[in-house]
Amino acid sequence: MRSLVTGASGFLGSAVMHCLLNAGHEVRVLVRPESNRHNLENLPIQIFEGDLRDTLSLKHAVVGCDYLFHVAADYRFWVPDPKTMYDINVIGTQDLVRVAMEAGVTRIVYTSSVATLGFNHDGTPANEKTPSSLDTVNGHYKRSKFLAEQAVQQLTHTHNLPVIIVNPSTPIGPRDVRPTPTGRMVLDTVLGKMPAYINTGLNIAHVDDIAHGHLLALRHGKIGERYILGGEDMTLLQILQAIDDFTGKRVNRLRLPVKLMLPIAWLMERIASVTNSEPRATVDSIRMASKMMFFSSDKAKLDLGYQYRPATEALQDAVIWFKENGYCN
Length: 329
Fold this sequence. Notes:
Elements: E1 2-6, H1 11-22, E2 26-31, E3 45-49, H2 55-62, E4 67-70, H3 82-102, E5 107-111, H4 140-159, E6 163-168, E7 170-172, H5 181-190, E8 196-197, E9 201-206, H6 207-220, E10 226-229, E11 232-235, H7 236-247, E12 254-255, H8 258-275, H9 283-288, H10 298-304, H11 311-324
Parallel strand pairs: 1-2, 1-4, 2-3, 4-5, 5-6, 6-10, 7-9, 8-12
Antiparallel strand pairs: 9-11
């Protein structure tokens, strides 16, 4: 069993890679030449250099593989040139699925996101059938993932491709080398840089549980279906307080209204456009924070046998990893 994993140098991709290795797969990874390879060190894997915008490199990487786990994505809440994100997340995904089909890959697990799903106005958890549209999706990252999932679904139905889609919620845990925007939230809390909060909520899942959900999707997923791989719903304040408990530093935080944060986020974006550095908050992310982003994994539990550990374990493992790897110095 030879599996190609894209995005294996990153956070979720590296967790999927480890899960497959533990399951006895022969693992090949596709990484960009400039990628941080800390998560790939001392592992029995084949490394192919390439880029989702380079179709020839995709063809070389996928030849001879039985399975494809397409986890890679440009995951940022702000980009100086949005076209780059669409080229990677949408066009790159289409091209990779096509070359995998031509190479005879027998099963593809595509990592989408809960960002493509809608929300329930009453705050109850959304599921795979909760309606959404491009008009209701905020921000270039979420819009690009929405369009990419639509493209994958169309290719699957048109060409009868063996694709299963998984929609992770908010992964938290070890090996977040960049870190991701959610990992940055955890790290900032540890470093005492989260003195305030917005009344929002997230679905928190351990990154290794989500990774195992990918393997379960390969084994038990129904072609053409999508499955939410999530965990526990928590308010942002609960998340911050749980991290405080691990560090032993309980902070009395100020609750900020969304309307107050919007102009601050706008100013951060203007500064970022000059410094070319990612802002701590964006207008789109603050608008999203006005909703409780809660999700149900019941379908994955029933159809795949998916399970997840308590969210506090994911948060604690993330804190431990950041501390052990010098992020808190």
